[in-house]
Structure formats: structure tokens, C-alpha cells
Amino acid sequence: MELSENARAFISPSDLTFSWDGCHRCLWLYYNHQVKAPLFMPLVGEIAEMQELSCLGKTSADLHPAIPEGKVESHGGWVVSKPIEVGGQVTPYAIRGKYDLLMEFPDGTYGVVDCKFQARDSDKSGFYSPQLEAYAFGLENPAKGEPKQISSLGLLVWSPVKIRGNSSGNFGMELKCSWYPMERNPEALQSRLSEFIGVISGKVPESKTKCDQCSYVEKRATILSAI
Question: What is the C-alpha to C-alpha distance for residues 204 and 181, in angstroms, rounded to an integer?
Fold first, then answer.
């Protein structure tokens, strides 16, 4: 298996969730030709950064009583894995991504915490499991440096409850904080990676039904060709 000149060699953990559940033709174009529709999400980055920075140096009890005893060791760290194997064969792909929080536990193991700000409090741990498992894979199988044993994965979810304050002072937002742990499932990650690599290294897939991006491009091309 060889990569073309413009192909991406690194698989982003987040692409194993949102992009995988989306249009596989768009996914193929991104990984083979670096073509991706612009995405504008105002305030998302700023809110995420505030949430993560508020956790630095905190203990598990400071974040949520259900999180295993430990302390936040780092925030926003990059992980790069060794090449991924599929069916016993080494591929040209590797995991590369940036986790939100890394916790260190008294027994010397670590935990990956993914911070989420959701409009409504709900358990989406099943959906995000491949993403967090990918971070764990990168930490346990690093391209460089010592591996870290990951014993815990989970989502730290903030969701708005109500606005506090008034016009004579600063307004604030009351938030609910929830912890949704995940059971380790490296086998499911390997299955997802196998499927994922099969798609991005194969022929151009069909567009997903009702893919807004593909529909826009096709309609635009049809209109412009008739002008």
C-alpha cells in the first residue's frame, strides 16, 4: 500500500467519529487530495479552551467525584503513533491528534479526558469511543518516547442550565457537569481503523445520500456548465 503525493499519512482521531459517520466520498477526497469544505464554528474553540484550561492542575475530585482518583497532568498534548497494522500488515498510516486532558493516577497509569460543551446533557460516550481509543492507542504506541498505559477514558460534559447576573454587573452561566466513563475497547478501534483505511485507500466511494457538500458542488457545477 503506497500513498499518493497529496495523500494524508496521519489519521485524526476525530475523523474516526464525525467524518466516518458523514460522507465517505468527502472523507476520501480529504485524505487523498487534502480537499475539505470550510467549517466555521464560532465560539466553539474559545469555549473549549476555557473549559480545558479551567481543569489544569485540578484533581479528580475538583472535576467530578466519579472520576478515578488522580490529577490533571497536561492539556492539549499531541500524540503521534507508530504505523497502524491491519490484518498483520503495516500500513503507511498513523494516528496523530491532540487530546484535551491527560490525568495521572497513583498507580502510574493515565486517563484521557475529552471535554465537551453540549446544549443538552446526554451520554455520547458510545459515539466518541473510537476517538478516545485512538488517543489511547497513540499514547500506548508512540512513534517516539516512552509509552503510557491508559487505564481510563471518559467525557467531561458541561451543559448550560441558566443565566445568572444582571446588567449592573457581569452575566454568568450556570453549568451542569457530568462524567461519562468509557470501557476500554481497543478491538473496536482496530475494526474501525481497518474499515477507515479500507475506504481512504480504495476507489472513490459513492456520495452519501443527502450529503450537503456533494449536493452543493454538483448543483454548482451543473449551473456553471450551462452558463
Answer: 37
